[in-house]
């Protein structure tokens, strides 16, 4: 009943870096699932592009293998898999040279959407943009999708925006933050702006504080070289956590359209207070006794690294809605569990009629992004049974899996949603250039402060909840982090 799929018009989608890790694990499985859902019309084409000399047959074999791993269930349908593979083509080209570009241009169809996914390292974004223009591939209906990281700091983000702007209009540039493609993140907006119940309470009069946690159980995996130059602040806070913060804190846009939504997000970033050094905790994981996982320095092979793998921050927003209500952000690697959740913690009732024994209870709206996407509202009720009133907190499940049936409970991967939005030309869930620059303008002074002070991150053990200083950050305010639950 709920799986309404409106097919998109035939398109040409070029995946630059079509043989890379992201294409293999995320983009191609997302495209295949949308294909299986009937989202693509006859004639849609997907063209992989990379330097390797694979040929179309070789690429189809590569993709079939990738789908058997990353979309095993759907790939079991041999007819669907064959039909999808038939939409695939491949061009061997070099983003830094001119080899292969005329062949790519010759493969593209006139008068249809051309979506170019830049699934390559950031140093190739500018060369790709320039060559797309030089080889006549850019039409009014060409769109580019740019992966993170978008710059390393404000200056590099500005330079990249300027390069892209030389070849494309802003309406053609889709800067991806896959957190925005998550079903629950969009549901957060529906809950906030589709109900009368929450919005009147959504301010510093009723909300005590907000906690945004993005905890990972894994280390840096194969990305050590990049990560050691980036760290958690650049890799996670400047983009994903900032985006979540914006959606929580923004004013209701006048309508759900790309610029109206992004204008409101930008206002939040511009209203963020500079963060005081004593409101930040940086951490780096170290090996824990009795566990096999290495510490960060061993994992990246840099025994003197001072890169943070954990950061916790207390953030203030100077506007009428939020003045006085802090937002606490934390993210880290090799923590006790993988868990991304936003907790909106409401204030206590002003007076307890049940006496002191009843304790203090707070309503908490939890928006869970992964794993087990869903929304719960913690409410206080009477513990069942005779003998007076004892209060307990119970979660009210707002995922409504029962009401929505199996289709409603199924959450498509973020890339499925985002890829289709690109094909439709809907930029609501993509970052605008000025948003990215404003986020760097807020983040840069924090990083520069660490660098100028020679700050060394606090150690925390693999499998823990992070450095003890992060607990103190909360305790100083008479608050506590809610648990990181798998
Ligand atoms: P990757 O596995 O290293 O793949 C890079 C791709 O680019 C390969 O297909 C490679 O194929 C191609 N390539 C490299 N140099 C090229 C050139 N000169 N001309 C044409 N193609 C070239 O990288 P990835 O992990 O997929 O990441 C791609 C992008 O997504 C990066 O910006 C990364 O930061 C971002 N990202 C990745 C992930 C993830 O989970 N992997 C998550 C978030 C963001 P050839 O060597 O054959 O040319």
UniProtKB/TrEMBL annotation:
Q: Which residues bind NADP(+)?
A: 17-24, 51, 148
What Gene3D superfamilies does UniProt report for this protein, alphabetically? Dihydrodipicolinate Reductase, domain 2 (3.30.360.10), NAD(P)-binding Rossmann-like Domain (3.40.50.720)
Any one Gene Ontology molecular-function term assigned to this protein's record: glucose-6-phosphate dehydrogenase activity
Record: active site: 240
Q: Name one GO cellular component term.
A: cytosol
Looking up InterPro entries in the UniProt record yields: G6P_DH, G6P_DH_AS, G6P_DH_C, G6P_DH_NAD-bd, NAD(P)-bd_dom_sf
Any one Gene Ontology BP term:
glucose metabolic process
* Extent of the signal sequence: none
Q: Which reaction does it catalyse?
A: D-glucose 6-phosphate + NADP(+) = 6-phospho-D-glucono-1,5-lactone + NADPH + H(+)
Q: Which residues form the Glucose-6-phosphate dehydrogenase NAD-binding domain?
A: 14-187
Q: In which pathway does it act?
A: Carbohydrate degradation; pentose phosphate pathway; D-ribulose 5-phosphate from D-glucose 6-phosphate (oxidative stage): step 1/3
The EC number(s) attached to this protein equal 1.1.1.49
Is Ion transport found in the keyword set? no
Keywords (alphabetical) are: Carbohydrate metabolism, Glucose metabolism, NADP, Oxidoreductase
Provide the Glucose-6-phosphate dehydrogenase C-terminal domain boundaries: 189-481
Q: What does this protein do?
A: Catalyzes the oxidation of glucose 6-phosphate to 6-phosphogluconolactone.
Q: Which family does it belong to?
A: Belongs to the glucose-6-phosphate dehydrogenase family.
Return the HAMAP family for the record: G6PD
Name of the protein described by the UniProt record: Glucose-6-phosphate 1-dehydrogenase
Q: Which organism is it from?
A: Jhaorihella thermophila
**Gene symbol of the encoding locus:** zwf
């Amino acid at each position: 009943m709920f799986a309404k799929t409106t097919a998109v018009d035939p398109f040409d989608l070029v995946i630059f870096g079509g043989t890379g890790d992201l294409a293999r694990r995320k983009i191609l499985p997302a495209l295949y699932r949308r294909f299986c859902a009937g989202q693509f019309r006859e004639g849609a084409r997907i063209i992989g592009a990379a330097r390797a000399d694979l040929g179309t047959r070789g690429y189809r074999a590569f993709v079939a293998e990738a789908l058997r791993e990353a979309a095993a269930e759907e790939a079991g349908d041999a007819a669907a898999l064959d039909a999808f593979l038939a939409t695939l083509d491949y061009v061997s080209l070099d983003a830094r040279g001119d080899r292969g570009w005329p062949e790519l241009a010759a493969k593209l169809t006139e008068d249809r959407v051309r979506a170019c996914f830049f699934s390559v390292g950031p140093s190739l974004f500018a060369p790709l943009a320039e060559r797309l223009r030089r080889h006549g591939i850019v039409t009014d209906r060409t769109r580019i999708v740019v992966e993170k990281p978008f710059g390393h700091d404000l200056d590099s983000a500005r330079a990249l925006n300027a390069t892209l702007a030389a070849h494309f209009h802003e309406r053609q540039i889709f800067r991806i933050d896959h957190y925005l493609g998550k079903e629950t993140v969009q549901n957060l907006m529906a809950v906030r702006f589709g109900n009368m119940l929450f919005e009147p309470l959504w301010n510093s009069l009723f909300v005590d504080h907000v906690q945004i946690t993005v905890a990972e159980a894994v280390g840096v995996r194969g990305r050590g070289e990049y990560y050691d130059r980036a760290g958690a602040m650049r890799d996670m806070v400047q983009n994903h956590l900032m985006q979540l913060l914006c959606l929580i804190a923004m004013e209701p846009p006048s309508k759900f359209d790309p610029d109206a939504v992004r204008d409101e997000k930008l206002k939040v970033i511009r209203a963020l207070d500079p963060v005081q050094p004593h409101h930040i905790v940086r951490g780096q994981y170290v090996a824990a006794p009795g566990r096999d996982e290495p510490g960060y320095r061993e994992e990246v092979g840099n025994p003197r690294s001072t890169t943070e793998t954990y950061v916790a921050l207390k953030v203030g927003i100077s506007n009428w809605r939020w003045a006085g209500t802090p937002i606490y952000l934390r993210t880290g690697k090799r923590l006790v569990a993988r868990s991304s959740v936003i907790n909106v913690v409401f204030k206590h009732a002003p007076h307890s009629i049940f006496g002191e024994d009843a304790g203090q209870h707070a309503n908490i709206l939890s928006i869970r992004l992964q794993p087990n996407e869903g929304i719960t509202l913690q409410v206080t009720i009477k513990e069942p049974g005779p003998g007076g009133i004892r209060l307990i907190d119970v979660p009210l499940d707002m995922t409504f899996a029962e009401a929505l049936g199996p289709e409603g409970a199924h959450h498509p991967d973020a890339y499925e949603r985002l890829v289709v939005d690109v094909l439709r030309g809907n930029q609501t869930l993509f970052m605008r250039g000025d948003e990215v620059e404003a986020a760097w303008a807020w983040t840069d002074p924090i990083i520069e402060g660490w660098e100028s002070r020679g700050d060394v991150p606090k150690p925390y053990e693999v499998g823990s909840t992070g450095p003890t200083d992060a607990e103190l950050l909360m305790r100083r305010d008479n608050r506590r982090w809610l648990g990181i639950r798998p």
